[in-house]
Multicopper oxidase family protein
Amino acid sequence: MTTALLMTLDLLAAVLAAATWLGAGVAAASRRPRTALALLAAAVLASLARAGVVGGLAGAGWWFVQEKVTVALPLLLVTGVAATALAAPPLVRAARSQADAGAAGSPAVVVALLGAGYAAAGGLAVTLLMGYPATLSTALVTVAVVAVAMLVTWRIVAGPGRSPRIVIAITLVTGLAGTGLAFFPSPAMDDGLDHTLSHSGMGHLAMAAGSPAKPQGRPVTSLRGPATPAAGGVVRRYTLSAETAAITLSSGRKVDAWTFNGQVPGPPITANVGDLVEVRLRNANIRSGVTLHWHGYDVPAGEDGVPGLTQEAVLPGQEFVYRFLADRQGTFWYHTHEVSDLGVRMGLYGTLVVGPPSAGVDLTLPVHTFAGRTVFGDHDQPLDQRVAPGTPVRLRLINTDNTPHRFTLTGTPYRLVAVDGTDLNGPGELDRMGLRLPAGGRYDLTFVMPAARDVVLNTDDRTPSVRLTRQAAATSTTASATAGTAANATASATEDAKEDTTGWPDLDLTTYGTPATTPITAADTFDRRFTLVLDRGLSLAGGRPMYAYTVNGHAFPSIPTEVVSTGDLVRLTVVNRSRDIHPWHLHGHRVLVLSRDGRAPTGSPLWLDTFDLQPGEVWEVAFRATNPGLWMNHCHNLVHADQGMALHLAYEGVTTPFHGAHGG
Ligand code: C2O
Ligand code: CU
């Protein structure tokens, strides 16, 4: 059974347990002992079922069950046992003889049964509202709330008079202690070192030993790119002006957008290895401000474009010049990082491709949802390209949206040769296979244009997005062959239209390609280890109270900063215990995948900058800290990032002159 399924079953069992305990209490109060007994039996079963499911879930990791094992189940056990002991005998007697019917509705019976219901509901609330990790304070406050609910119930059922002293005592003690503990400061830094002594029994994070030492602090603004290209390289100069504009999509449809130079996507930025990329960003009239972040390109920190951390947002009338060396080939993209959820959605993004370009046809295809439509570049209709059979084709897919897209290619087998700008090792031929591209991620596909069929790239199984049509040959010697293929073309076009790709299996990247040695392995000794548990919960995100997207129970900016030193080997464990997909993205570094759900990749080494965590998944990734700076580490569903799911990775000794509290 998958972890995601167990998480769902756990919720169902929790709801069922709460409903049946409460139902039993209500039936007892209305003096229906038989109904109450039946519901009591169902409640006991549902409670046992929840315990069983939690046992199964524990196998996936402590993160998935911590609050259930420490709070929800003990509370349910104590109240459930008490309710069964107090309520079952009188209910049985009442069911047997009319003379004892009154006993069914006695305050003790009703309050005990309802109390177990409150406890079951309280445990469910802890899972849904607080998540991981439940603290001692959460536990105590939950007990207090359940006890208060029982006291109020007692008042209603028994009328004015003395309430049970034991419940009053529990309410006072747990309520006061829980509220008091809530004011304990939470750690602001996590240095990733093992501080065993400061681990509390309730699963608190390791407390950092205070702020990192800042001897001769190096401001992040001093970590800039070079002024000249490498030997043999040239300077690639671009000017990007951020401005609102009404743009026209290929269908003629007009949409209001936020653009670079009046176009969406912004101007494609290309360079070859060795070149210096110099981009002058001007803000004409984007009132909230703009920056440029080079997604997946590990530029010096001062060029990373995170407002409030590496620079101030560029406001209307202002400008900022970015410079970095093109030191690595591949497919990347750029986007604003100021109110990026809105800014990217409105159009402030473009492509960054470092070549040399491939021979043949080399298409860069950023996919975006724009005004409710799937758009490739500025095409909201299929993009048609004529290609001569035998031509090598490279498609560079870039997902600039917040959610994954599924791509299928009909008409030819192909290879997935690069992921997130890094070539895969020994990528085999793929046929009738879906590719799920995470938000922010890139896939490079290659194939040779076939002679027999046209090739169609479909997005999410509905939209034919790119059609590569065979180009008619010009010479008479091939005319007959051309005629023949033209006849086929009609036939295959019909076939293409009918091809249903929904049932095609998705490629599992962790088993694709061939293994190779890597500079990092799971067996290495890591200098720092961090665990990020992704969830939802009530929290303050950017000062606003909300049902936030949380990391380790906190929302930005109060998620502890991860602290590393230059040269450290760092291991990140990322756990998704929520019901959403989270595309995790670390700035400034590629990470090597060590394992997903405990299994190491068996194919090509996987270096990613954005990896998708499905609900219930646990990923372990690693990197060498060789790019000093202050970096964002966040979910690339930018709605989630905006609502709390973002933190910083800081190199010891690097400082920022800015307020530092911007999540982007
Ligand atoms: Cu493409 Cu911080 O993100
Ligand atoms: Cu997310």
User: Anything to note?
Assistant: The chain has nine helices and 33 strands. Residues 197-215, 474-494 have pLDDT under 50 and may be disordered. The radius of gyration is 30 Å. The CA atoms of residues 111 and 499 lie 62 Å apart.
